[in-house]
Amino acid sequence: MKTSVDFTVNRIETFSDGVFAIVVTLLVFDLHFPHINNPTNENVWAAIVATLPKLLSWVNSFLIVCVIWMNHHRFMQQVKSFDFGLFWMNNLLLLFTSLLPFPTKLLGEYPGNNAATFFYGLCMFLPTIIFPSMGFYLVRHEHLLKGIPNQKILIKVARLRGFYGPVIYLIGAGLSWVNSWLAVGIYTIISIYFVFPRIKLTTD
To answer: Which 3 state secondary structure label does DSSP give 147?
Structure first.
């Protein structure tokens, strides 16, 4: 039974990069400045303040998509070939990532709403759970990697990604029913935290 896919790693990465580019473009499309009938300085500043929740949710989601793209690029540098399992896990990552403009708009439209904040965290949880899953998959399918991997590093990276992303997003989503702004603060901290890499995955 054939277990590999006919697409090259470069072709899969190119398609994935295109999806990420479209997602960040769709995010900014939801930013609209309200029309002001009487554009006095006071009214303009009031409109700017009213737009801040949308800007905050947009920046948060933009950072997360950039982090996902950055980690995906590092991941692809380690992969020699794809089998059907890894191929569809990658597609699932793209599926969940492409969903992000929807909860971003919802949170921006209804800041402070418990349900909107919970749904945002839940949607953020979905793509972050895929990366550790792909890492554990590679631990069990080392033939898909370039060179001879350090299995301990693979497992450590997968475990860290499986905790700091998915678990904390779930905690934030749960706290959204207690205090929506506290949950948004947690989401923002996660975005900033993942901008800076903690562990380098090597195959030396």
So the answer is: coil
Residue 2 included in any domain: no
Range of the domain at 20: 9-195
- Predicted local distance difference test score (pLDDT) of residue 114: 92
Radius of gyration of the chain (CA): 19
What is the rounded distance in angstroms from the CA atom of residue 150 to the CA atom of residue 6? 27
How high is the pLDDT of residue 204?
41
200 is a domain residue: no
Residue pair 171/152 in contact by the 8 Å Cβ criterion = no
Asked whether residue 34 carries a pLDDT value surpassing 90, the answer given is no
Task: Say how many domains are in the chain.
Answer: 1
pLDDT in tens, 18-31: 999 999 988 888 77
CB neighbour list of residue 126: distance below 8 Å, 6 or more residues apart:
96, 99
